[in-house]
Amino acid sequence: MIVVVKEPNKAAEIREIEGGLSALQQIVDGRIEVMELINGFDLVCNEEFLFLDLEPNIVVNGELFFGTVFITKADDTGNFVSLSDSEVRLATMILNRMAVQLV
Predict the structure, then answer these.
(1) Angstrom distances, CA of residue 18 to CA of 6, 26, 42, 96
(2) CB 55 within 8 Å of CB 8
(3) Pairing state of beta strands 63-66 and 69-74?
(4) Plot region of 40 (φ>0 → left; ψ -120 to 50 → alpha; else → beta)
(5) Cα 103 from chain centroid (whole Å)
(6) Is the pTM here over 0.70, yes or no?
(7) Which of 55, 30, 24 has the alpha carbon at shortest distance from 42?
(8) pLDDT in tens, 3-33
(9) Which residue, 4, 17, 85, 98, is the most exposed by fewest CB within 10 angstroms?
(10) CB–CB of 44/60 below 8 Å?
(11) Which residues does the UniProt record annotate as the domain DUF3846 (predicted)?
(12) Nearest in space to 42 (alpha carbons), one of 82, 15, 11, 101
């Protein structure tokens, strides 16, 4: 499955991952939480990012997210599926624009 991953203080990158829950949890280093974004995208983050000592990463609708996040999408049955090439480009741009700018 193709997703776009954004780690703190790094540019977003394309990754091919397995589709199972374990692989998703490994990326965010813990239990996952899914938030619906624009264009049918889903943002996946660590469910407990507010309680862990993680670095700030992105801001979504005024909310700061910590730790590694990634964008994917779900099919009609709710299962995560690969992003297309055009979706990868858009997701990469979205994550990079949401990045926290540390001064």
Answers:
(1) 17, 11, 17, 23
(2) yes
(3) unpaired
(4) left
(5) 23
(6) yes
(7) 24
(8) 999 999 999 999 999 888 899 999 999 999 9
(9) 85
(10) no
(11) 2-89
(12) 82
DSSP-assigned states of every residue in the chain? -EEEEE-TTS--EEEE---SHHHHHHHHTS-EEEEE-GGGEEEEEETTTTTS---EEEEETTEEEES-EEEEEE-TTS-EEPPPHHHHHHHHHHHHHHB----
64-94: pLDDT as tens digits: 999 999 999 999 998 999 999 999 999 999 9
State the amino acid at position 78 in one-letter form.
G
- Asked if 67 contacts 45 with a C-beta cutoff of 8 angstroms, the reply is yes
